[in-house]
Amino acid sequence: MLDEVEPVKAIMLDLVVQRILKETEDVVRIELAREDGEPLPVYQAGAHITLQLPSGLLRQYSLCRLPTSGKSFEIAVLREPQSRGGSAELHRLKEGDVLQCKFPQNHFLLTNPRSPALLMAAGIGVTPLIPMAQTLHKTGTNFCLHYSVKSSAKAPFYQMLKDSPFADKVQFHFTDTERRADIRALLEQHKDKRDIYVCGPQAFIDTVLEQAASLGWPETKLHREYFSGSRSPEMDNAPLDAFQVKVASTGEMIDVDQGVTITEALEANGIDVPVSCEEGWCGTCMTGLIEGVADHRDTFLSNDERASGQLIMPCCSRARSECLVLDL
Ligand code: FES
Asked: Whole-angstrom Cα distance, residue 101 to residue 310?
């Protein structure tokens, strides 16, 4: 008789915090490596890792540089004043602490590293665009990086970008001064309708995408990534660490604790919602939302669908109200 085969689990690595650098008053750079010094999996520009924090929370962070020695990952973390979880915890880390980390994944790939690109970043959203700029520079591809941020003092990677070999391709736009970006005017300079990669808060991304669409950019050339913690404009409530979901067909109330996804909580109570990516991009788990305010963390739903308040991706999204009533 064959031995019973264990189900394949996501591969997790134990990584040690090797170095913490204060990038700005609110941003730290954290370098992670294997305790045994062995190489880490390779990744491409735009990739992110998922970390399990000491509290059990899972959080995703973009890798902020291309692999150098191949033996460390580096992320940048913004301290969010309203955060009761991830960012505050990471800002409390010390060198030598150990975290569990899932292998890098990439849903924000450069479609073609030899095709001209326009990189548009706001604030900490610059993180995944730095390895993209490094890649484009390496391949000798025409690109520019427009970086909107409050001031040079508040700009993560300001000095690094000023000193980079592609410094002439980087344009800073400081929102505290007259040097604010005129997004439409910037886009209008690119008659070739090149690929646009945009990352930052939702309002910034929406503006770039809307302006690009109105200038005739094809949707296939618009690539976006919402950084963790970005807020949808329609949501004023703070995200909750723990909340309840109600199954509309039976009235059953289920607790969703910190560090547990809605689909995991449902499954633990015998209710299966089909899942695939479990990261909010494939659409498999889409579920009707009858009541309550979702904290959307997916990249699948359109802005209109989010604004309707009638859909949620329960594999990753959470709640901003005490209870979500699900159409199950
Ligand atoms: S399982 Fe892919 S979006 Fe939820």
From this structure: 33
* CA 102 to ligand 1 center in whole angstroms: 17
Please give the distance, rounded to the nearest whole angstrom, from the Cα atom of residue 315 to the centre of ligand 1.
6
Tens-place pLDDT, residues 135-190: 999 999 999 999 999 999 999 999 999 999 999 999 999 988 766 788 999 999 99
Q: Which two tokens stand for residue 120?
A: 């548009």
Nearest one of 229, 200, 225, 201 to 79, comparing CA atoms: 229
- Pick the atom of ligand 1 nearest to 315's CA: 4
Name all domains of the chain by residue range, CATH numbers in brackets. 12-105 (2.40.30.10), 117-226 (3.40.50.80), 243-326 (3.10.20.30)
**pLDDT tens for residues 58-116?**
778 899 999 888 899 999 999 876 555 678 888 999 999 999 898 888 878 898 999 99
Ligand 1, residue 280: give the atom nearest the CA: 3
The pTM (predicted TM-score) of the whole model is 0.68
Atom 3 of ligand 1 has which residue's CA nearest to it? Answer: 280
